[in-house]
């Protein structure tokens, strides 16, 4: 989606409304794009709500330009030019019971007001007429937006009972917009927090990732704790005297990856296998899981780096996760847990030319075979020892490295 151009997305969304209007239908922008526009934020995408039925929508735009994947719920995707993306056009509707706690069992087509009242939060329940430049607000979303409040539409418990994911979405909206949760909405979330587990692991981890990557991540974690959601989805996280430290570390991260924020959050857990357990529970991507485990395993590894043998430090500096590891140690330094000079030294060494940071090995397995050393586990041990000697400046030529290999081989007695 990187090729999308915001101005062209917007123009296409206007054209969708114009086309529906030209065929005699009511059509408005709906949901998040309206909220974002009022917040002076560029919308990621655009949704249109209309009184046209799914078949009528497809007739207006043509079957080649539409996808009917969500037609059972009144949703038709209209495909635009490459740089404009697509727009979801949804028929005004009412939802039947949400039997699975996530999706309505069925829908019936309705009016704009009824459609607004079935949505999740007031700030997401507004419509906008881009042709008349007019907000249509049946739920008080504009007032809540001005007041900075995330409030469930209607009765909070009923809205959450319909779709349990709304609990995490409510926390996310409050976090990324710097808003407060309405008191009744927060109370309903806290009451129903244990039921969040009916939501798929992928959706839970996706919401958590968005929150942890946002600059307000510490507030997000605090709010997850206050609502009881953190205990429901991450019971292993310890909230004892180290809790404030965890929040401080999250607060001080600048541009972290998901793996780094997750490592910080999981550090208080006593179980060394916590990352693997969470990875399985949330079905994390292998790369995120491996990096989280690596960061946890090397927590504090850059402490006293100025006094460490170069052969040990160099092996860390050439690892894929070194940028994240250095950022981790920078925040440890910011709260006084390690010497900032050690982190600065690592950054300085990391900036060395590649030939100095990671010079080619002086000897290889082929050289060991030439010396008549039988293949086996001894190869890895010898090559590691010779590499250490090379990095630490004890040998600097191939001849010196070969002589060392012979000496080490004889000493091994193998």
Quick description:
The chain has 414 residues and is an alpha+beta fold. It has helices spanning 6-22, 32-38, 54-61, 112-117, 141-147, 156-162, 165-177, 183-192, 201-213, 217-226, 229-233, 243-252, 258-266, 274-282, 286-297, 310-317, 322-334, 340-350, 354-357, 365-370, 378-391, 398-412; strands at 27-30, 46-50, 66-67, 75-79, 86-91, 93-95, 107-109, 127-129, 134-136, 149-150, 180-181.
Notable characteristics:
elongated, 414 residues, two-stranded antiparallel ribbon, single chain, alpha+beta, 22 helices, Beta Polymerase, domain 2, 7-stranded mixed sheet
How would you portray this structure in words?
- The chain is α+β, with helices and mostly antiparallel strands.
- Among the domains are: 1-140, Beta Polymerase, domain 2 (2-Layer Sandwich), CATH 3.30.460; 305-357, no CATH class; 365-412, no CATH class.
- Helices cover 52% and strands 9% of the residues.
- It is built from 22 helices and eleven strands.
- It has helices at 6-22, 32-38, 54-61, 112-117, 141-147, 156-162, 165-177, 183-192, 201-213, 217-226, 229-233, 243-252, 258-266, 274-282, 286-297, 310-317, 322-334, 340-350, 354-357, 365-370, 378-391, 398-412; strands at residues 27-30, 46-50, 66-67, 75-79, 86-91, 93-95, 107-109, 127-129, 134-136, 149-150, 180-181.
- The chain has a seven-stranded mixed β-sheet with strand order 3-4-5-2-1-8-9.
- The mean pLDDT is 92.
